[in-house]
Design a protein that fits this description.
Helix content: 25-40%
Structural class: alpha/beta
Largest sheet: 7 strands, mixed
Shape: globular
Distance between the termini: 23 Å
Radius of gyration: 16 Å
Strand order of the largest sheet: 1-3-4-2-5-6-7
CATH class: Alpha Beta
Number of helices: 5
CATH topology: Rossmann fold
Order of helices and strands: EEHEEHEHEHEH
Strand content: 15-25%
Number of strands: 7
Length: 200
């Protein structure tokens, strides 16, 4: 897939504000500071489409972008940032929960995992939540340029092994780098294939 056009549509602080169009939505979510905005900008080829911040937890809204006038890319708030107040964490969590479980347009949720880290409990818990609610998702391991290939491979293998303790099979997984554009074609091709797949 080639992204020819990427336009900001709107930001929503609650579900009722989300667009009413029936476009298929592909949403991106992950722990705060996982590199979500950078990945979105890399995928779309727009350096400032999603705002990149050095401060984790800055994305507090659901941001919709229309891609090629065909589908919507959705930037969801990050989860698990300790410096966010408890009340705010609960607010973001309810917003995230409501979107991923109730949004009929959601076609696939990309969960971003920092490939530099050992399996994190909060990521595993979130994936369990998705499984329990039957949410279609894929995994995008980020920041693959930050360590040696051998280290990245070990970390990803450890994460997959941890998942298989509970899951019978793994979801689609992608290894990405916003710096080198690694994984861009594979991820966009995956979205392209899903766009032509009939909705069950």
């Amino acid at each position: 897939m080639i992204i020819r056009k990427a336009e900001f549509k709107c930001s929503s602080s609650k579900m009722s504000q989300c667009p009413e169009e029936e476009m298929r939505e592909f949403a991106f979510i992950g722990r705060s500071n996982v590199g979500k905005s950078s990945l979105i900008n890399m995928l779309t080829g727009r350096n400032s489409l999603a705002k990149v911040s050095g401060t984790p937890g800055k994305t507090k809204l659901i941001n919709h972008f229309i891609i090629n006038d065909e589908w919507a890319l959705v930037d969801l708030p990050g989860y698990g940032y300790a410096r966010t107040s408890k009340a705010a964490r609960e607010e973001f969590s309810s917003l995230i929960r409501f979107y991923v479980t109730k949004r009929e347009n959601l076609h696939c949720l990309f969960v971003l995992i920092d490939s530099r880290l050992e399996p994190q409990k909060i990521d595993l818990s979130f994936l369990d939540f998705l499984g329990e609610n039957g949410i279609p998702f894929a995994i995008a391991f980020t920041k693959a340029d930050k360590l040696s290939q051998a280290q990245i491979n070990r970390n990803i293998k450890a994460f997959k092994t941890k998942l298989l303790e509970k899951w019978e099979e793994l979801p689609a997984c992608f290894v990405t780098s916003s710096e080198t554009a690694k994984g861009k074609e594979e991820l966009l091709d995956f979205i392209s294939e899903m766009l032509i797949t009939p909705v069950p």
